[in-house]
Amino acid sequence: MKRLSIVLLAAVLLLAGASLFAAPKEVIILWAQWSPADYLQQIGSMYEKETGIKVKVVQEPWGSFGDRFFTAMAAKGTEWDMVVGDSQWLGQGATGGIYVDLTDFLKSTGIADSVTKATLTYYGEYPTGSGRYWAYPTEGDADGWAYRKDLFEDPKEKAAFKAKYGYELAVPKTYKQLLDIAKFFTRKDKGLYGVAIYTQKDYDAITMGVENTMFSWGAKWQNEKNEVLGVVNSKKAIEALQFYRDLYEAAQVPGLSNAFYTETNDAMIGGKAVMVMNYFAFFPALANKGTNPNYWDKVGFFPNPAGPYGNQHAALGGQGMSIIKFISADRQQAAKDFIKWFAQEKVQTRWAELGGYTCNAKVLKSDAFLKATPFNPAFATTMTFVMDFWNIPVYSQLLQVTQREFSKFVVEGQGTAKAAMDTIAKEHDKILREAGFIKK
Amino acid sequence: MPAMKAHPNAPGAGLADRSGRHLSDRAIQNLFIWPTLTLLIAMNLFPLLYSLFLGFTDYSAIANKPPVWVLFRNFGDILASEQLWKYFATTGRYAIMSVGLQTVIGFGLAMLVRRKFFGSGLITTLILVPMMISPVVVGLFWKLMYNPTFGFFNYLLGFTNAAKAPDLLASRFAGQLVPGLALFAVVIVDVWMWSPFVMLLVLSGLNAIPEYLYEAAAIDRASAWFQFWRITLPQVAPLLLIAVLFRTIEAFKSFDLVMGMTGGGPGDQTELIAVNLYRQAFLGSFRTGPSSALAYIILIIIIAVSNLYIRYLNQIRGEA
């Protein structure tokens, strides 16, 4: 009996050991819970058909996505092979030893040259300008605008607008035009308002919203030496913030004092807002009859307008695919194999057809992509002038300051734009100095 | 005569294992208790002590660096931070308003349902429903109810024009800023949700009051107010105080309602200390050391406030 137990135990151990050394049969990717993750799962099914390796996309709601991922990484978790993480996470992922360095992999396979320079920089590179890459640009995204084409094209509206403002009612090219149009269409007695813009305080929404005006005004978060005093609180940045508040006060749909992508989209779907700000990733819902039954065929899209000084930029969104360092070498290789396959032009074309926002340079320029959806032309234009918030490890501390001050000034109506920007500049300076990003 | 072996099942004998050795009662007790105790120590005591240690370091859970001892720097930074004291003040105001209203409304509801009437069981059950719902769900649907364009709340108040109606979560009335309105909106929801809890505790106290006290008071022609002030309230006071104690502790920990409705905004009008603790401990920050220190400061404040209640409770019990 004793001998039999030993033999059985040895057999079990041998089998267990064998399974440890067997090639991985599955690649597990963590992403936020949204439509692009569904599309990635469909892409994964294609990979399984070709290679026999299953791809499982684990989806976590946006609100808890970051917390779930970083909490697991604090415990050196190996439940996922890859994560499609926010661009802001690059600093933490790289310096915290969470992400695998993909520099050699992306360069040697030619993948680095297949995506646009801007997307490789913003979704993959840390530190910026270093030439070190930690993620494959997977889902390009940026802020854009949706608008009610039927109202813009209505002859009576056009005549009334021209009579009042002296120029034709058309898709706004500048923020001044956007404000004029927003005020024109704000009819409180009829329950119609000019805009639905980001105001949510929780994570990063209101900062991303204000960034759209800041960047188009020509303002920045830092200079080349990471200095912020006089940069964050420059005259242009203060003007931009004041403009965002003026837009909110004049034309925001009531009840949207804590609004992000769901609320702004709902404002359009409910017929309350004439123009809504949102990430391109959420525009498919507006062009879909099932989710936008009344206006799906009356919605147009345009890129973030230019500011008064001729600059035109948009707040970057989007994510890159990173390999988690804590998994075994075999699993890391399986993950690399998947990225290599995914980066092929034919797969990226399919990815774009499904609704994913490819970063592949050739696919982005193709006629097929530009004609695939009504918002793709605006997206392709926008991806040429995106700018981003900080992606350093202390980005979250910097974000909490901007979220607080922007919410106080824009939504609560407290203080002045100058005071808000001065406070942000002062606190950012302190945080950056303590973290060693500004040399004394 | 050979010595008799004790029967294995005799009292105090313990259990015999296969080789005939006995497990003593003490050993059996330990076998049952220690696995649970080990789990409790691992899940409760260890995190408590480890987080206290981390409060004295600059540790970040995701920085891939070991904790560095900084002694009292985290505590000093917190106590010197104007921003954090503002959040403590907001939490204090929230606790006073919320607990005060819950006490009055809960007591009132208990007085209304203490006597049996037709349907009293069903009505009492319906009153309890709000506290059975998940706080996050409550926060989300009250956010919809407060919406000035389609929300039910404004409709009940008689406002049909969104431009002239209150936008409570934005702290505005007819477009004009009214500071404090957002916090009051959160208080209303908290009161709606937890007054039934106070009602339950007070009801059990009311049902325990002996009838003869009221009969004696009636014979002496005591007024209704006198009976309430001199009989009902003193008899119910211990349970009422327990309810107030629990609700005060919960008010200091309030997080889900606020995150569901306002996210701490507008500005930082509804930024309660627990919400800020979450921001520091998670949401990309993972400032584990400073947030552990903040958690302990909140714990000390809660213990101090609870002690005041407990002293008063003991005083009342002593007088009784």
Considering the chains and any ligands shown, give keywords for the structure.
heterodimer, A: about 450 residues, alpha/beta, D-Maltodextrin-Binding Protein, domain 2, 2 domains, 11 strands, globular, B: about 325 residues, MetI-like fold, two-stranded antiparallel ribbon, about 65% helix, disordered N terminus
Describe what you observe in this structure.
The complex is a heterodimer of chains A (440) and B (320). With 440 residues, chain A is α/β, with parallel strands linked by helices. In chain A, helix 2 runs antiparallel to helix 15 and helix 11 (205-216) crosses helix 12 (235-251). Chain A is globular and about 95 Å long. The termini of chain A are far apart. Chain A folds into 2 domains: 26-141 and 317-387, D-Maltodextrin-Binding Protein, domain 2; 143-315 and 394-434, 3-Layer(aba) Sandwich (D-Maltodextrin-Binding Protein, domain 2). Chain A has helices spanning 2-21, 35-51, 62-74, 90-95, 103-108, 111-114, 117-124, 149-153, 155-165, 175-185, 205-216, 235-251, 261-269, 329-342, 345-354, 361-365, 367-372, 376-382, 395-411, 417-434; strands at residues 26-32, 54-60, 82-86, 136-139, 143-148, 193-196, 273-279, 299-303, 314-315, 319-323, 386-387. Chain B has 320 residues and is mostly helical. Chain B has a domain at 81-286: MetI-like fold. Chain B is 65% helix and 3% strand. Chain B contains 12 helices and 5 strands. Chain B has a 3-stranded antiparallel sheet, with no helix packed on it. In chain B, a hairpin with a 2-residue loop joins strand 4 (172-173) and strand 5. The A-B interface holds A 66-67, 70-71, 73-74, 88-89, 92, 95-98, 188-189, 191, 199-203, 253-255, 257-258, 270, 272, 393, 395-397, 399-400, 404, 407-409, 411-414 and B 61-64, 143, 146-151, 161-163, 165, 167, 169-172, 177, 179, 259, 261-269, 271, 279, 282-287.
